[in-house]
Design goal:
mainly beta
């Protein structure tokens, strides 16, 4: 699994729910996803830390050439290497993973 520092979203499902002899049975399924894309907040915000009561900008992501290029490739309407109708060809890499947990509880 790829290390994630944050999640973009999650879905939770309950599957195969049933009651047998006063026991509740089922499966709780969690689907998580994250993307390695940049949005406006990523490029506009800096990494800030409070030092001696003052907010100090430690990293200004917009000043890092790689971040600017990454953002441009994902958001530019003019850069389209495949000449297809979808102008944004460089899509973020998406990670999906699921966890299932069996539930068995006496009621």
């Amino acid at each position: 699994m790829i290390a994630l520092h944050d999640l973009q979203g999650a879905n939770v499902y309950f599957e195969n729910a049933k009651i047998e002899d006063d026991v509740f049975l089922g499966t709780l399924k969690f689907n998580f996803f994250d993307h390695f894309g940049l949005d406006d907040q990523d490029i506009m915000n800096s990494f800030k830390k409070e030092i001696f009561g003052k907010s100090v900008s430690l990293i200004d992501y917009s000043s890092i050439e790689g971040f600017r290029s990454w953002y441009y490739l994902q958001h530019s309407d003019t850069y389209n290497p495949s000449n297809q109708t979808d102008k944004r060809k460089y899509k973020p890499f998406v990670t999906n993973f699921s966890i299932k947990e069996e539930i068995k509880e006496k009621i």
